[in-house]
Structure formats: structure tokens, C-alpha cells
Amino acid sequence: MSQAIATARLPAPESLSLAEQVAQMVVVRASGHLFDHEIRYPAWEADLATLTRYVEELGVGGVILLGGSAAEVGLKTQALQNQARIPLLIAADVEEGVGQRFSGATWFPPPMALSAVADRDLDTAVAYAEAFGAATAAEALAIGLNWVLVPTVDINNNPANPVINVRAFGDDLERVCALTQAFLRGTQTQPVLTAAKHFPGHGDTAIDSHLELPVLPHDRDRLHDLELVPFKRAIAAGADAIITAHLRIPALDAHHPATLSAPILTELLRQQMGFDGLIVTDALIMGAITNAYGPYEAAVLAVEAGADVLLMPGDPEGVIAAVVEAVNRGRLAPERILTSVERLWRAKQKAAPALLPDGAGHAWEHLPPPPVQLQALAQPATRRLAANILTASMTVHGQVSPCTAAAPGNNLVLVDDMVGCRFLDRTAAAIAWPQSHHYQLKLIDTQGCIQWPQGDRLRPSLVQLFVRGNPFRGSAALMHLATTWLEALREADRLQGVIIYGSPYALDQLRPHLGQTPHGFTYGQMPLAQSLILPALLPELTATLSREFTD
Predict the structure, then answer these.
(1) Residue numbers of the chain with a pLDDT score lower than 50
(2) Which of 20, 231, 446, 487 has the smallest set of CB atoms within 10 Å of its CB?
(3) Over the stretch 420-433, which tens digit does the pLDDT of each residue have?
């Protein structure tokens, strides 16, 4: 596609009104579901009528989607692009592949799994990272997403980090750089935009920025030698956007958090590091920002600081009005807004092949493609890649003895919130396989622990714990629950085996409570991960179950 044709639907930025220019800087949140009654977070996700108004009347520049099936998202992205006068950037947080957010697509393990692979073979891990990036980009493009908000380039060097955690590619500087650069190479096989996050580094924090403002106390030398390095490498590797961190760094700015800091965004990122892509705020609904600044002042401060994109403001219409008023009152220069829109135009031109049909030739030659490219979704090779990463990164110590019909056991499944759990239904391996091997299901969560008679508790028990960093809630309650059960079962000599799904930091914390008990760990929580680790820890499993999940 020629550049002239690709930009045919992008008017000159200066031809837009000020309000239209500011609206292009706003990315609103919506559900991937097609129907309003299926929206999971109505306080944050626009219903159909509101989303239509944002796109058609306000002219927002983009939409970030969460939830729904891949097929639904394909239909929704197509409808949104048809509604928009100016092509939209349609984004998603797909750190674990498109299937993490949208059912039907491939769900990969979290990025930290690749660091575990690198412990044994760095070259294999780098190859997996590149293939992971390529698969994520291809599946995103197949359902109309043109902006993947990945990779996370933070170095998770604080095991207590509740918000980055396994979303990072590890806790070692050079390994994080090697894996994130490989991931970016993979994504660049498709015309989708990328975003490195969370600048200038959110790895060494112990506070959840969804709730409060963390403080990073390190001096400039430490920041330049460690936290900033993966961002420099990501910029050199061609990252299209940098997403900010909602944290305060006194060594760089004594007054404002990074998202609202001109010294950090303009002086450091733009001028010193030479980044000329999109600077994107982290979600503006997060407590670290809204608690102190409110939605409107935060948006104005972010633009003042150098942000080009205001991601997920709580009140998009009010935020647009606040930024327009700041320009009209002389607080912001009109040229500041125009510069951001010009950057957005360059980004949209890059994504244009996915948005705009070639205008040459006959109309019948240019029928719109189907909204979902099924041949690019959850194909056997992609699922094998996810399975290979899971297998290479999991660990197993010992083997669990089976129970019998005459002497059944308990399958204790501990999870933070059973009601909101995507990866445990009656067909999931963590439930179905132990049940077929005479382990009776007992579900326990932190919302209301299930109790049963003492005699039943004393049965031999397999404990399966699903735990990882939980934004907004943390995992302390679940870890306390797990510790209590593990100790009770060990004292009664009824602990048959333990499987931990998700966080290696949870495994480290629970090791003293495992003793010599057979146990396994996998970074994944999805049914595919369950189907791979269960037969490794309980080898009597037939090959049928494994094939069912991996074919």
C-alpha cells in the first residue's frame, strides 16, 4: 500500500478543531463483549451507546478492549472502525498472548516463564520470546487489534512487587533486555504497534499503584545503570510507544509522579533518551493518580509533562474539556497538542495496512476481509509453542500416589476468587483429572472458605494453589489460607502433593511448609498448564488427557 493511499483518511492535524485534536489523544476503555448485559466492569467500560458517542461524536483516537471472545472482538473492532471518521488505534493488554484477554485465542504463560527457560538455555528462551511476540501480533491483527500494549520491560527485582511480578521477563538486567528485544523483533513481523512499559521502571516497588502511589528511592546513577537500560534497548529495538509508571522518583522529580512529570517524560525520555514515539500514560483511573490529582487535573498535568496519549480516563468527555480549557487559558500551548496529534498520525500510518483497503482497482476486488482471520487463531503450531514454554519452565519434585475408590482423597483447589475465575470450570484438568483418579473436589477461596467435617479433612489430599500478583487485592489472604491448610495437612500426615500455579515467589514462600511432599510449579494457570503439570506429578495419567489439551 502506498503512503499516499494509506493516509487518505487521515486529515491534516491542523484541520481539526482543538477539541477534535485533544480527543485524538484519548483512548477509552470498553468491553470486548458485543452485548451490554455482559459488560463485567460497568463503572469503567462504556456501554454501546456511550462508546458510539465517544467514537462518532467526540472522535476519540483509540479504544482499549478487555474481555469477551476473539470472535466478538473481531466483530467489535470492525464495527468501531466503520463508525470512526479517523481510523482508530484499538489496543489490548496482551502480556500473555491474545488468549489472556479474549477466549478462543492462544493463552501463553506470563513472560517470567521465559526467564526460567533462560536459566537452562538462553538461546532457546530468546527464540521462544521472538516466536511469542510474532504469535501475539498475528493473533491480535487477526481480530482487528492494531496496538499490543507489550512488552513489559520492567526488571522485577523486588519479590514483593504486587503489580509487576510475573508480568516481567525476569529480575536480571541483561536477560530482560535480551528477551524483550527478541519479543519486539517478533511483533515487528506484523503491522501492529507495540508499547514498552512502565517508564522509568516499576520493578522495584512493593505497593500496588492501582491503589496507592509507590515511591522509588534510588539515585540517578542506579536508575541509569539498571531501571532505564531496558527502555533504552527497547527504543533502539523500535518500540512504538512507551507507557509511563504511576510512581514517584524523588531523584528525578521531587514534586510529581512519573506520569505527570516533565523532567521525566520530556527532559529524560524525549530529550536525553531521544524517544520520538508515543508517550502513553498508564491507566488514568488508577488510584496512584486519581487519589491525589483527580481525573481532570491529572490529564492536564500529563499533557504538560509530555504525554501524547491519555489512557483510560474515568470521564473522557470531561478530560477533553479540561485539556481544551487549559489551552484556551494559556496553560498549554496549541502547538503542544498539535505535536502529539502528529505523532499519533505517524503511528496510525504504520498501522494503516490493517485499517485501510487499497483504493486502486475495482470495488469487487476490495471486499472487506472477514472480521476474524480464523487461520491465524489458536493454530496447532501456536498452541505447541505455548505448551513448549510451559513445559520448559515448569518444575516437578517427586510423584504423587493415586487414591482408590475404596480410599478416596481430597482435591483441594485454593484460588483468590472462584466467582471471577476464568481457568477453572468442570472440564479444566485441575478439576477433571483428580476427580477421575478418586480425588473429591473441595473448592476454597478467600471470599468464603469452605469447611467440612474433621474426618473428611483427614483424607489424603492433593493441594492445588492458584496464586500470583493480584492488582487491587494482593495475595496475602490467599497465601495465609494456603499456609494454614498445608500445615494442618502435614501435621495430620495427609498431604499427598502440592501444585502451585502462577508465582515463583509464592513457591519460595511456601517451601518451608512443603517438607518432602511431592510438588510441582508452573507459571501458567490456564487449562493447558494444568494438563501439562498434572501428568508429570501424577504419572498414572493416560496420554489421552494430555492430547486433549495440547492438540
Answers:
(1) 1-8, 356-366, 453, 541-551
(2) 487
(3) 788 998 899 999 98
How is the chain split into domains, by residue range? 3-360, 394-550
The pTM (predicted TM-score) of the whole model is 0.92
The reply to whether 308 belongs to the active site is: no
> What is the distance between the alpha carbons of residues 228 and 273, in angstroms, rounded to a whole number?
10
| Residue whose C-alpha cell reads 463483549 in the numeric block | 33
- Beta-ladder partners of 395: 521
Indicate the pairing of strand 519-522 with strand 395-397: antiparallel
Which grid cell sits at 551? Answer: 492438540
Which one from 210, 256, 437, 519 is the annotated catalytic residue?
210
Cβ–Cβ contacts within 10 Å for residue 352, how many? 20
- Contact between 252 and 289 (Cβ < 8 Å): no
CA dist 333 and 34 (Å) reads 39
Neighbouring C-beta atoms of residue 321, cutoff 10 Å: 15
Are the folds of 3-360 and 394-550 the same?
no
E-only strand ranges, 225-373: 241-244, 278-280, 310-311
Estimate the share of the chain in helix, then strand, then coil, as percent rounded to the nearest 5: 45, 15, 40
Domain 394-550, CATH among 3.40.630.10, 3.90.1150.10, 3.90.940.20, 3.40.50.10870: 3.40.50.10870
CA distance 301 to 167: 28
Which 8-state DSSP code applies to residue 365?
Answer: G
User: Among candidates 77, 87, 78, which has minimal Cα distance to 31?
Assistant: 77
CB atoms within 10 A of CB 429: 24
Q: How would you label 91-108 residue by residue, b for 16+ Cβ within 10 Å and e otherwise? A: bbbbbbbbbbbbbbbbbb
Q: Is 282 a catalytic residue?
A: yes
Tens-place pLDDT, residues 317-359: 999 999 999 999 999 999 999 999 999 999 999 986 555 444 4
From 240, 282, 308, 416, active-site residue: 282
CA distance 91 to 194: 9
Distance between CA 330 and CA 308 in Å, rounded? 18
Q: Could you tell me the CA-to-CA distances from 505 to 8, 111, 176, 211, 462 in Å, in that order?
A: 51, 15, 18, 22, 21
